[in-house]
């Protein structure tokens, strides 16, 4: 159940960033199925692909004092946009900002969902 709630939080974060930025940062056609499928692909990419990329780019990340991590997040979001029909990126800087906003909103939402009461 928590997995489904986390995916919905990620989907809401994706759709929210697109909607609140008036499609300037990220373009999502519809909430269902585009944002939900994008959230599933994003979860898979963050679980499988991102750790490998982070290890491979560790020297660059150290040299840039961690700022290259933002580029890695944007690259993962760009990959998701390339794989999911109905999700489009608008540019490098917009994708970096969208990736940061999605990460912040998703982490806050996940903390709220995982709160065991």
Question: Could you explain the architecture of this structure?
Answer:
The chain has 117 residues and is mostly helical. It is 76% helix and 5% strand. A two-stranded antiparallel ribbon has the order 1-2. Helix 1 runs antiparallel to helix 5 (92-113) and helix 2 (31-56) packs across helix 4. The longest helix is centred in the middle third of the chain and has 26 residues, at 31-56. It is globular, with a radius of gyration of 14 Å.
DSSP, total strands: 2
What number is the mean pLDDT? 91
Indicate the structural class: mainly alpha
Q: Could you tell me the radius of gyration in angstroms? A: 14 Å
Unreliable residue stretches: none
H/E element order: HEHHHEH
What is the strand arrangement across the widest sheet?
1-2
Shape: globular
- What is the rounded distance between the termini? 15 Å
Helix run count: 5
Helix content: over 70%
Main sheet record: 2 strands, antiparallel
Percent range for β-strand residues: 5-15%
Helices and strands in order, then pairings?
Blueprint: H1 2-20, E1 26-28, H2 31-56, H3 58-63, H4 68-83, E2 87-89, H5 92-113
Antiparallel strand pairs: 1-2
Short summary of the structure?
The chain is mainly alpha-helical and 117 residues long. Helices cover 76% and strands 5% of the residues.
Fill in the keyword field for this structure.
117 residues, mainly alpha, two-stranded antiparallel sheet, 76% helix, globular
């Amino acid at each position: 159940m928590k997995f489904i709630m986390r995916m919905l939080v990620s989907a809401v974060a994706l759709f929210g960033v697109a909607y609140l930025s008036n499609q300037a940062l990220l373009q999502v056609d519809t909430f269902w199925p585009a944002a939900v499928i994008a959230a599933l692909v994003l979860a898979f990419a963050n679980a499988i692909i991102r750790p490998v990329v982070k290890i491979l780019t560790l020297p660059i990340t150290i040299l840039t004092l961690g700022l290259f991590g933002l580029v890695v997040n944007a690259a993962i979001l760009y990959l998701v946009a390339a794989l999911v029909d109905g999700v489009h990126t608008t540019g490098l800087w917009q994708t970096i900002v969208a990736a940061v906003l999605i990460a912040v909103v998703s982490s806050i939402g996940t903390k709220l969902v995982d709160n065991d009461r």
